[in-house]
Amino acid sequence: MGWLRGVGRRRRDLGPVAAGLALFGFGSLELYVPLAPYVEGESLDLAALPAGWLAVLTVLLAGHCLAVAACGSYPRAAVVLVGACFVAQSFTPVLPEWPVVPLLALVVVCFACVAVAGRHGPVIAGVSYFVSLGIETTVADDPDWAFIVFVALAVMGPAYAVRMRRAQAERLVALAAEREAAARTDERLRMARELHDIVSHGVAVMVLQAGAAQVMLDSDVRQAHESLDAVQEVGRDVVTELRRLLVILRGEGSLERLPSLRHIEPLLAGVRTAGGRVDVAVNGDLGRVPAAVDVSGYRVLQEALTNAVKHAPGATVSVAIDVGRTDLRIHAVNDGPRIVRHGDGSGLGLMGISERVELFGGTAAAGPREGGGFEVRVELPLSGNSAAPVPSHTGASA
């Protein structure tokens, strides 16, 4: 089976080889079974030629046919070979213009060189063609440049058209490869955002609860146990979200299992467990929000709440979710001072918000408020389409 697959891959090479063999058989008949005069005005009897000349003509015939057989794989070398054989035969008693094989081989190989050779293929083919026929007509003392140019145009024109089509096909293949690479990059970025959104929120809450449990371990054992229970609960939620993401990436998940703004109570409970307060106001029908926009809105809100838990623990977060006629608006603001510790945040959170919003052609703004606190304001078009995404602005790292 492997050999058959190899033959299938070499089908383009087998065609020229078969053509070369066929021409060699036909050319042998021309040499050894002459049916017509080979020189204009004369009836040349090839049987009367010395055996040496017949051997030379047979070798040149083999050269012509070898060039045809190799024109698919080595077009430039083949066109040089056929030109050399054509010129060499011009100095034999049998000129190459009248037998079918030499002229046919020259035309076929020049066509192949123009069509499939590299950058200098057309130039090499043109030089070989005109030099070969120029020398032959000079030796024969019968220059017919009108015929030579006509044949050149009839052969080179279609060959060049084939060359352009091949180049266009190669460009399309390269463009498809670039688009595939870009799609893979986008998918990796989307996975990175999902993983960040899932892990960052849960870990932030777990760290705060573990710290609270450590502080209260000696003074309030019951409260310490409650904090540890909260750590365990949030940890289970994170593991569940990660499993859900893996299932979706395998193509086994359904839209009903995706995060949604219609089911944010577990998200809010994590913030409240960490000691914060969350007030949510929803205006409009969340059922109108497309699934992709819904998931992105959920992740944006998750990142805004994680930002508040990390940088303003214990603050009150006010969230407004408005479903308009054309867009989804999310506004999250906390009233606590934004305390940024050294090394506290890499900026990936707000960067993820910006990337999500730009993907849908929406707008995002995030930064500290004048009177204290921090706010995140996002607008996502419900259509989820945009020809030119609007750049987002973020005012601080998360």
Automatic annotation (TrEMBL):
Residues covered by the Histidine kinase/HSP90-like ATPase domain:
293-384
Q: Which InterPro entries match?
A: HATPase_C_sf (IPR036890), HATPase_dom (IPR003594), Sensor_HK_TwoCompSys (IPR050482), Sig_transdc_His_kin_sub3_dim/P (IPR011712)
* Recorded GO MF terms: ATP binding; phosphorelay sensor kinase activity; protein dimerization activity
Q: Which GO terms describe its cellular component?
A: membrane
Q: What is its EC number?
A: 2.7.13.3
- On the tree of life, the source organism's domain of life is Bacteria
Tell me, what's a Pfam family for it? HATPase_c
Its UniProt entry gives the catalysed reaction(s) as: ATP + protein L-histidine = ADP + protein N-phospho-L-histidine
Which keywords does UniProt give here?
A: ATP-binding, Kinase, Membrane, Nucleotide-binding, Phosphoprotein, Transferase, Transmembrane, Transmembrane helix, Two-component regulatory system
Membrane-spanning regions, if any? Answer: 14-35, 47-70, 77-94, 100-118, 123-139, 145-162
Q: What broad class of enzyme is this?
A: transferase
The cross-references to PANTHER family, in alphabetical order and at most eight, read: NITRATE/NITRITE SENSOR PROTEIN NARX-RELATED, NITRATE_NITRITE SENSOR PROTEIN NARQ
Q: What is the designated name of this protein?
A: histidine kinase
Name the source organism.
Streptosporangium sandarakinum
